[in-house]
Amino acid sequence: MTPDLMEDGARRAAAAQAAPTPGATASGGRAAGFARPVLPGAVDTTHGRILYLDDVHVSFDGFRAINGLSMDIAPGELRCIIGPNGAGKTTMMDIITGKTRPDRGTVFFGSTIDLLRYREADIAQMGIGRKFQKPTVFENLTVFENLELALRTDRGVLPAMRLRLDSAQLDRLAEVLRTIHLAEAVHRQAGTLSHGQKQWLEIGMLLVQEPRLLLLDEPVAGMTDEETARTAELFLSLKGRHSLMVVEHDMHFIAEISEKVTVLHEGAVLAEGTLDAVQNDQRVIEVYLGR
Ligand SMILES: Nc1ncnc2c1ncn2[C@@H]1O[C@H](COP(=O)(O)OP(=O)(O)OP(=O)(O)O)[C@@H](O)[C@H]1O
Ligand SMILES: [Mg+2]
Fold first, then answer.
1. How far apart are CA 137 and CA 141, in angstroms?
2. How far is the CA of 146 from the centre of ligand 1 (A)?
3. 17: part of which helix (H) or strand (E)?
4. Is residue 4 part of a domain?
5. What is the C-alpha to C-alpha distance for residues 130 and 77, in angstroms, rounded to an integer?
6. pTM of the model as a whole
7. Closest residue by CA, ligand 1 atom 12
């Protein structure tokens, strides 16, 4: 970690602290608006759900991208989401992560956290990690430095200011390196990694932050068959400890990892069940698999 990066981190953290809370009123009260971030780990899953969406709608210029979407995910579950282009899969992730506000509907993290009351950065801090399709690692830094940076920019001011990682953090880093199959490549510059390795590194950068829920949008697109197979193993090793929502078009990959599959079509759930069940569902064959 260079001093420049550390200073940057400290500055960002201080600025975040000093920024006025949106919705705060002159009297110090709060207008209806965004809520304060919830402490990580405070998500209540005693009702058996880590994520709950009910009757969510969003339109873009009159086009109904999400149209009455309802679903829930259990703690530790690995849920696969499939469906044709434009079905609303990425938009659903945008809604969960606070990037897009729905016009109406309910989106809860656990049974108590109403995600629609939080901003994108707060939602990430609460333990919802998101992996976009394109890898976004820092190419000029090593694998280790990328993970270290992700650890330091995690949750609040203190980690960003501390000079050395403590032993628990180093242990976590080593564990993540093994999980993502990059222990041997720890000192390699990220720019020299293969596409698949970059994707794993980015997943590692999420994992060091110990997310409760991971949203992964087309994670194996562009990977070789071998990288895809290793990614399947990786995801299977993550479930239980984390909850995962995986959007993919690669049906071989889905077959390797799937328990329950949700099929989205025109912004709503068309079918849900085992891969076998949805593959034999006539409506799913018509709109997606049979094409
Ligand atoms: N910000 C936006 N403004 C306007 N239209 C949008 C916006 N975001 C998504 N859409 C539209 O909403 C629909 C759903 O898009 P979305 O990207 O969620 O589909 P998807 O299921 O992820 O598809 P794919 O499998 O191709 O990634 C598409 O018709 C898309 O063009
Ligand atoms: Mg998409």
1. 9
2. 30
3. helix 3-18
4. no
5. 16
6. 0.85
7. 65
Total count of domains within the chain:
1
Does a structural domain hold residue 33?
A: no
65 lines ligand 1 (CB under 6 A): yes
Q: Quick one: tokens of 83?
A: 């469906």
Pull the structure tokens for residue 37.
Answer: 């971030």
Q: Report which protein residue has its CA nearest ligand 1's atom 25.
A: 85
> Looking at residue 167, what is its pLDDT?
87
Kindly state if the Cβ of 265 falls inside 6 Å of ligand 1: no
- Tell me, letter by letter, the H, E, C secondary structure of 261-276: EEEEECCEEEEEECHH
From CA 176, how far away is CA 206, in angstroms rounded? 10
CATH number, domain of 220, equals 3.40.50.300
Q: Which residues of 117-146 are buried (b: 16+ CB within 10 A; e: fewer)?
A: bbeeebbbbbbbbbbeeebebbeebbbbbb
Task: Please give the structure tokens belonging to residue 12.
Answer: 């960002």
pLDDT in tens, 83-117: 999 999 999 999 999 999 999 999 999 999 999 99
Look at residue 31 and tell me whether its pLDDT is greater than 60.
no
Q: Which domain holds residue 58?
A: 46-289
- Domain presence at residue 279: yes
Q: Is 53 within the bounds of a domain? A: yes
Q: What is residue 37's predicted lDDT score, i.e. its pLDDT?
A: 63
pLDDT of 9: 44
Cβ atoms of 243 and 50 within 8 Å: the answer is yes
